Amino acid sequence: MVYLLISVLILNSAAYFVPKHLKRQEIYSTALFSFLLGLTIDVIFAFKYHLYGYFAAGVQMSSFLAIAGLFPATGILYLNFYPAKESILKQFIYILSWTAFCLFYEWTAIISGFFYYSGWKMYYSALTYPVLLIMHLIHLSLFRHLKNRGDTFLS
Fold it and tell me: For the chain, which end, N or C, has fewer CB atoms within 10 Å of the first or last residue's CB respectively?
């Protein structure tokens, strides 16, 4: 639990204090999307199929803390520094770097005991993280498109 709490504190502090390249609405939208995406994925893979979990089997507040405390902050940090105006190679390397970070964090979470596998494999995560990161990019792109179009619910 200590590792999770320290992680939540560090990642959320970083997301709050780093220089922002995203607008407030984009930060809010990203945080909400990251939370909902993480919650959806975890409900399916952790609670329905029992492939992994937080601390112990079943639903508990510590699982919610992991989802609400980690996913929005990492989504904001990832998109805030995404090199959108750089070459495709730099964007690819950025996504691979974040995938490596996520895999390293997942491994340390397993070692710390707040995350466990029960059928899941690390290479599943290696295949899943790039997809989730690209989903964040698609979401931000869609959000910006709708905002620039002048839709009233985003104004």
Answer: C
**What's the length of the chain?**
155
SS3 116: strand
Q: Which DSSP string do the residues of 4-73 spell out, in sequence order?
A: HHHHHHHHHHHHHHSPP-S-HHHHHHHHHHHHHHHHHHHIIIIIIS-SEEESSSS--HHHHHHHHHHHHH
Is there a contact between 72 and 34 (Cβ–Cβ < 8 Å)? yes
**1 touches 62 (CB < 8 A):** yes
Distance CA 74, CA 58 (A): 24
pTM of the model: 0.91
What was the pLDDT predicted at 154? 56
Look at the block and give the residue holding tokens 């690390």: 122
